[in-house]
Amino acid sequence: MEETLKIVVLVKHVPDAQFDRHITGANNTTDRDESILSELDEYALEAALQLIEARGGSKAGNQVIALSMGPAGAVNAVKKSLQIGATEGVHLSDDALAGSDAAATSLALAAVIRHLGADAPVDLVLTGMASTDGETSLVPAQLAERLSLPQLTFASSLDVTGGKVVARRDGDTHSDTVEASLPALVSVTDQINEPRYPNFKGILGAKKKKITTLSLADIGVGASEVGTAGSLTVVESAQARPPRTAGTIITDEGDAGIKLVEFLAAQKLL
Amino acid sequence: MTQALVFIDNPGPALKKSSLELLTIARSLGDTAVAFNGELHDDVAAALGAYGATTVYRPSAADLDDYLVAPKAAYLAAAVAASGAGTVLLENSADGKEIAARLGIKLNAGVITDVVGVDADGTAHKSVLAGSYNTTAKATSAVAVLSVKPNSVDPEAAPAPVTPETVTVEVPADAAANAARITARSAKPASGRPDLGEARVVVSGGRGVDGNFGPIEELADALGGAVGASRAATDAGWISHDYQVGQTGKTVSPQLYVSVGISGAIQQKAGMQTSKVIVAINKDAESPIFEIADFGIIGDLFKVVPQATEEIKKRKG
């Protein structure tokens, strides 16, 4: 039997990319009214669930803690994670967090992870490869730096055995096998697995699972360290890009390939 | 006094176009230095001078490549301190962004990724939410760390070449502590085509190609472009995930994007809608891709694409 694992999975509440998304307010922040669990975080949650299921699941003492930071609505990302199979949830919520950039976000999340490790250490922090809103991919690496954890990011495969974590990272020109000892931070790509959907039993069972709400005071972080005050970047302006408009659309009548080349020639693209 | 420091990591025997772009942007900010890692070939050293780098920093340690990202960030932090630079420029690759991320924490510096332009005062331009907004952002810290996307500026050599001074930077002894070790590396086969992220022309295939990327590749080669794919095509296993354009693949912004047999769902649009000119070929007139195409053809790709390829070859003689 493998060692039991205490895994924290970062889950983000993001605007649904299927619809128009907006930037609003004096600080040019993203409107989060119509938000869902970031699709890319489902791969991290699935990876965590597979790891604990191979170790006897929650009955054997394994934990998958879904952690989300954000306004009241962000608890929905935690609830969805509990329905899918996370064993408990944590929601960091504080008005002072609004407008946090990656530096401030990673500072707050690092404090939560230290807080969660106070009784028993966290073995693994799992994240998606990026959020589907900000898309910067900065937070996993910054969290690893702040927590002095080995980072194994953009993992397309993951294996944890005997206190050692091995992952494959696919780059543009080469694939790397990377290795570190636990505790570690791993971000996973959408190539690593096929995330499961919550089933009826999971949806019912989630209601009995514990969600802990934490404030900044609970984790010992001052209001000025996060939010716009604690951020090191500022978005000065945001301009909606004029929507692309459809150009010439033709139906092939046997010569569309030629017409295409004529178009490219006229645009000086040949 | 150095104003801008460009990080260049293992370029091999020649600098990539994206590195030349970083050097061009750096020079617009002031005196430019390079933090270099890897073997420095003569041609590369000459190119650094031609692009105006007055100092080339090199690490005291040779084993930075044995670990993932972390020790490179430690080296770069030491190079920033040695140079006194106020702006650090990196490429916008996975490694580049993560080195930027960790550097930001080490220096308490603001990090801005996916930058497409930098003003003389350090204001960074980027496009967000899948290209639906253009934003300007600025670091409020003493040092700004920017990762810049390819094709952001036209590379321009310095008015007069310089001979850079080489300075060794001491890599902190604990740089690789708590770093993941790279235990194996396998090179991917080179396609011989331009890099997808940097190409001026991209021809992408989707579900409609039904497993046959031959016509896509032939058109890409006739146009001197890169091959891309939708997630449907990579998920089907017709082509490697490396070629995926979209939210979870590559974001491309070429002069010309030719979308073939791709419906144009949001996941795909996110990766290509800032392309200059979009051409779409699809047999379904209702495909959302036609809403954003500059030139659209409703038709059978297996007839239209080969005909276009032949015509291009004929014109190019």
TrEMBL record, chain B:
Entry note: cofactor: Binds 1 FAD per dimer.
Keyword entries, A-Z: FAD, Flavoprotein
GO molecular-function terms, A-Z: electron transfer activity; flavin adenine dinucleotide binding
Pfam families attached to this UniProt entry: ETF, ETF_alpha
Flavoprotein is among the record's keywords: yes
Keyword RNA-binding: no
Domain Electron transfer flavoprotein alpha/beta-subunit N-terminal stretches: 4-179
Coiled-coil annotated spans: none
Cofactor (UniProt): FAD
Taxonomic superkingdom: Bacteria
Residues reported to bind FAD: R207, S230, R231, Q244, V245, G246, Q247, T248, N282
SMART domains assigned to the protein according to its UniProt record, in alphabetical order: ETF
Function: The electron transfer flavoprotein serves as a specific electron acceptor for other dehydrogenases. It transfers the electrons to the main respiratory chain via ETF-ubiquinone oxidoreductase (ETF dehydrogenase).
UniProt-listed PANTHER family: ELECTRON TRANSFER FLAVOPROTEIN ALPHA, ELECTRON TRANSFER FLAVOPROTEIN SUBUNIT ALPHA, MITOCHONDRIAL
Family membership: Belongs to the ETF alpha-subunit/FixB family.
Assembly and binders: Heterodimer of an alpha and a beta subunit.
Protein name: Electron transfer flavoprotein subunit alpha/FixB family protein
